[in-house]
Amino acid sequence: MTENPTIKVSIRDLYKIFGSDPRGALAKVRAGMGKAELQETTGHVLGLRDINVDIAEGRITVIMGLSGSGKSTLIRHLNRLIEPTAGEIFVAGENILTWNETRLRRLRREAMSMVFQKFALLPHRTVLENAGTPLATRGTRRRDWESEAHKWLNRVGLGGNAEQYPHELSGGMQQRVGIARALTSNAGIMLMDEAFSALDPLIRSDMQDLLIELQGELQKTIVFITHDLDEALKLADHLVILKDGAVVQQGDPQHILLKPADPYIEDFVADINRARVVRVRSVMQAGPVDGATVGDVAPNDNLESVIARAGGAMDPRFRVVHDDKVIGFLEMAMVMRALVPSQSRTEAA
Questions:
Q1: What phi, psi does 195 have (nearest 5°)?
Q2: Distance of alpha carbon 19 from alpha carbon 153, whole angstroms
Q3: Cα distances (Å, whole numbers) of residue 349 to 174, 182, 252, 332, 344
Q4: What is the pLDDT of residues 279-305, one digit of tens each?
Q5: How far apart are CA 346 and CA 349, in angstroms?
Q6: What span, in angstroms and rounded, lies between the C-alpha atoms of 237 and 219?
Q7: Whose CB has fewer CB within 10 Å in the chain, the N or C terminal residue?
Q8: Where does residue 70 fall: left (phi above 0), alpha (psi -120 to 50 degrees), or beta otherwise?
């Protein structure tokens, strides 16, 4: 069901320290000094500490954490809006920390697009002109960028709003313009920094669905920043959780949910509705199926749908089928175990 993806962006040994002498503070951090102690003793702020993350091509990597965890600082290193104190950042195999300003401008204009929380639309330009901005700034002829902008505005549901101005649109519509603008750039990498955080819950859910739908078609490499675990679990192919500028745990969101690495992650996932987010593939038994079954389920079905299929009974047993091939089975006992947080299982034992 899975394959080894190509790594599009690779972050290695990345540190960021804010202050007058970041190099001097770096030595203290590498010697083991923590964020609070560093700030108290030197007045420097530890933004990122020894970050190592691989971002797969064509997948959604979600970076999440509480306020001050370093997630927005990290995403701004990917296009060098922030310069690191130490480390390396490879894009398509090249270390962009060695690039000059000309190559960096090309990276930001052509290879990476960015969608912001506050939309960042130009108020004096129409929706069409905002969507076409990336191509217009490259010198593309107006009729060509207009055609491309119209295409993506139609795709995000704003085909009839091209001549309006940003102030005439709702927040959700403005964010759709931001996504259309990113898509018009035809960049292979999309950076989305808290892109949906300013939206009302229902609109936010619609935007998440739109992103998933578009990603299914376009297979962009997306780096998505959020502080919301439900959003992260809904969107992520790969989840990275930060605390105090360091990676606490990363990997398949399902694995993190079922096997949190430490109490910090356990607290993060404690209140999640597991039935809605845990997938059959995470709890099934792979291999041949012996004995009777009552029906088939798909590996990406959530456990809530399986419980509904079972009608409250504890004895049903299902085959797990992917691409018309039986890949394993699922028993209700497996489902029930997955619904209990790991901390509760440990305490019960």
A1: -60, -30
A2: 43
A3: 51, 50, 26, 20, 9
A4: 999 999 999 998 889 999 999 999 999
A5: 5
A6: 12
A7: C
A8: left
Nearest CA to 48 out of 9, 89, 18, 91 is that of 18
Instruction: Decide if 62 contacts 229 (C-beta within 8 A).
Output: no
Q: Which residues contact 63 (CB under 8 A, 6 or more apart)?
A: 53, 71, 74, 75, 223, 224, 225, 226, 240, 242
Cα 308 → chain centroid = 29
- Report which of 332, 338, 212, 204 is spatially closest to residue 277, judged by C-alpha positions: 338
Q: Which two tokens stand for residue 215?
A: 């990603």
Angle at 190 between CA 67 and CA 99, to 5 degrees: 95
Distances (CA, A) of 134 to 42, 74, 108, 127, 220: 42, 23, 10, 13, 17
**Within 10 Å of residue 124's Cβ, how many Cβ atoms?**
9
Which two tokens mark 39? Answer: 């700030």
- Dump pLDDT digits (tens) for 78-109: 999 999 999 999 999 999 999 999 999 999 99
- Biggest alpha carbon–alpha carbon distance for the chain: 69
What length is written for the chain?
349
Helix extents (H) in the chain: 22-30, 35-42, 71-75, 101-106, 127-137, 142-155, 171-184, 201-218, 229-235, 253-258, 263-269, 274-277, 280-283, 303-310, 332-338, 342-348
